[in-house]
Amino acid sequence: MTALGYNFGYLDENTKRMIRRALLKAVAIPGHQVPFGAREMPLPYGWGTGGIAVTASVIGTGDRLKVIDQGADDTTNAVSIRRFFAKVAGVATTESTAEATIIQTRHRIPETRLREGQILVYQVPMPEPLFRLEPRVAETRRMHALADYGLMHVKLYEDIARHGHVAISYNYPVLVGGRYLMSPSPIPAFDNPKMDRMPALQLFGAGREKRIYAVPPYTSVRSLDFEDHPFQPVRADAPCALCGSRESYLDEVLTDDQGGRMFVCSDTDYCNTRQTHREAAE
Amino acid sequence: MSALLEAHGLNLRFGAVPALEDVSIEVHPGEVVAIVGESGSGKTTLLRVLSGMMRPDSGEVRYRDPDGAVHVIHAMGEAALRQLHRTDWGFVHQNPRDGLRMRVSAGGNIGERLMATGARHYGRIRTEATEWLRRVEIDPERIDGMPALFSGGMQQRLQIARTLVTRPRLVFMDEPTGGLDVSVQARLLDLIRALVADLGIAVVIVTHDIAAARLLAHRLLVMRRGQVVEQGLTDRVLDDPQHEYTQLLVASVLAA
């Protein structure tokens, strides 16, 4: 049941049309940042306004929405956004990755492989991968236009010279379709390989910075590296304390002030499903 | 055209002030050409026009690439010009802070041009950077040091290493020894002369230092108020100046 007084999906139709136009452009030029007019949302910048605007523009009555925050379905941000769309669009929601048609995410890609027809919507705080290296926005645009990305490699070089390895554990820069340098949003570097040739459509919305970009299905997404220092995703060297997974990305949880800690899956749906299966088997 | 770089009839005005008036210049492969003149004579403007950073009101600058194809610099696209600037050309600024990345280590500074042209092997970039530090007489131990902690002379030498690492065919230098004290200047000039001779690079150097021009340049252009008043072989111009302004310039050099 849709809440009264709101258009379907909260945004008015003209705004949605404008965002869809930006999305089409973004899909046509994979990895290229397209400006759009971000609207005021009933939550502050930094909480996912860009992601919500994108989701609101692509969602339809038949969709089933999943929202995760750092992999978890049950955190404040995820619960609020899911409830928001249940209210203003009246769509079905789910916690299951496999059942969802649209997944809005903050800082993770689900462990379960996504399939064709699904849409993954990322919330992006800073869309410009070069912003720490080149403060002038006009200059970063020019660098994108000319594919002049030597500076990004200088940053990687500096990391190896100083730390012996590339010390970027999240928001690891990628090259999309062999052309555009792109910020994958602050997902862990562990998730980067999942973006490569993903069957699902990946959309990125940055509300404060007013940029949209996209990776169409089956597009190459390569993490930048050196031939003699290949890209290496980092994962805590432990099995999940709850489901025993050795493949999933783990959160470290402190359990007391005596140094006690445990590692658990960051993806709650993946972990719960595995636990259920294990119990069923016993 | 056998010249590497050739400019004809360059004119440029800043409002009422003529910065360049009918200037023509040729630079041949491996040749060092110095542009001398007082402040405001248009020598830096000429350098900026030749290197494509500024557009003249009229006139043409043409460059012959390694394959023999001739390009009109100001008709090239921005992408092609940038590509030229980071491969075949180099630019050494007067202030090393304009040419270096101060927050990037010495090795990173040298490696940037390599990486911009596609080098993706950390070990080889590192070896090349070490080699170039040695060539410009900076202790290779300081490869991970920040340029901000280097002395002025070291910064300038680092800038030269960073520019020459891709072995350009043509380097523009804008008063490379300006702002350095005399003994450091002498060493730097020596270094530039050795590297240029060694690598066979063509150089267009702007300077107001006649002594530096005599040491480095094969040919000399004397500029005054946007015009080239005299040009010729360095020794000829300095030993037998024809134009009164050149005579004044040569007479003004302090003998130590």
TrEMBL record, chain A:
Enzyme class: lyase
Pfam families: PhnJ (PF06007)
Entry keyword S-adenosyl-L-methionine: yes
Keyword annotations from UniProtKB, A to Z: 4Fe-4S, Iron, Iron-sulfur, Lyase, Metal-binding, S-adenosyl-L-methionine
Domain of life: Bacteria
InterPro entries registered for this protein in UniProt: PhnJ
Reactions it catalyzes: alpha-D-ribose 1-methylphosphonate 5-phosphate + AH2 + S-adenosyl-L-methionine = alpha-D-ribose 1,2-cyclic phosphate 5-phosphate + methane + 5'-deoxyadenosine + L-methionine + A + H(+)
UniProt EC number: 4.7.1.1
Function field: Catalyzes the breakage of the C-P bond in alpha-D-ribose 1-methylphosphonate 5-phosphate (PRPn) forming alpha-D-ribose.
Family: Belongs to the PhnJ family.
Name under which the protein is recorded: Alpha-D-ribose 1-methylphosphonate 5-phosphate C-P lyase
Organism per entry: Belnapia mucosa
From TrEMBL, chain B:
Molecular function in Gene Ontology: lyase activity
SMART domains membership: AAA
Gene3D superfamilies noted in UniProt: P-loop containing nucleotide triphosphate hydrolases (3.40.50.300)
Record keywords, A-Z: ATP-binding, Lyase, Nucleotide-binding
SUPFAM superfamilies to which the protein is assigned, alphabetical: P-loop containing nucleoside triphosphate hydrolases
Annotated ABC transporter domain residues: 5-250
Pfam family, one: ABC_tran
Protein name: Phosphonate C-P lyase system protein PhnK
Organism of origin: Belnapia mucosa
